[in-house]
């Protein structure tokens, strides 16, 4: 069977000579070596329609009619967790339709739908949303150039998030240990770039958090800003413990009040995903390499990237207000 590429090439050649005034099928055959049968067919088509474009209406009719398509769209709008088989059963009950699950799936893909697992996120109560709005309204005109944004996260050895291109998905394997080790990291950034970070393997408590602030945050902050800076931290119990509160009151110039359940507002969250991907691409073989690569990649993040995400704070505040306190996409 002739390929679509060859067919298109034949059309172009035949049309070229036809437009030059060559009307003989054999003359075109001697110039192109296109099969005579193909030339005769296309010349007849040119005589009838003056075009070689495909005529619609040929072939097997669509399996889904307009009513069924509208019904599928309605099912998805009402419940976007509905399964393909459930849609099939509804169509069968409502319209005596015998359409297959694969046809429904193909139609949804053609419409731009993708079946995805939603990302997990903390639930926001009405009170949370209201406080997020109030916070954004209060701080939307702030100058964040002297604010130090901080956060902790964990990095697991042998993570499996780097995608690969392959023609055989079932053959793509990544061997991992059953009990994977992990490293915790605390980091600080500002509108001047990355400030400092600290990795640790123990569980974080109030005392150790004070140790991080005293030995890592204060030296870096004083070197960069002297005493003219403000600390951002979330409302984790370790951060609000009595020992941490006492230290912050005595040693930190200013503290930025932060809305609860609002990691989406903190620009450093964007940095963690960048660092994690870079670390994983270096394929650390043990926990020591993981810790080393983590510190290196964090400190080597392009200053322009850090400045950009920190200076997005005004837009984040506006997005919070516009979304009425809902999660924002940053």
From TrEMBL:
One of its GO terms (biological process) is DNA integration. Residues 147-290 form the Tc1-like transposase DDE domain. Residues 70-141 form the Transposase Tc1-like domain. Coiled coil: none annotated. One of its GO terms (molecular function) is DNA binding. InterPro entries: Homeodomain-like_sf, RNaseH_sf, Tc1-like_DDE_dom, Transpos_IS630-like, Transposase_5, Transposase_Tc1-like. It comes from the Eukaryota. This is Transposase. The lineage of its organism: Eukaryota, Metazoa, Spiralia, Gnathifera, Rotifera.
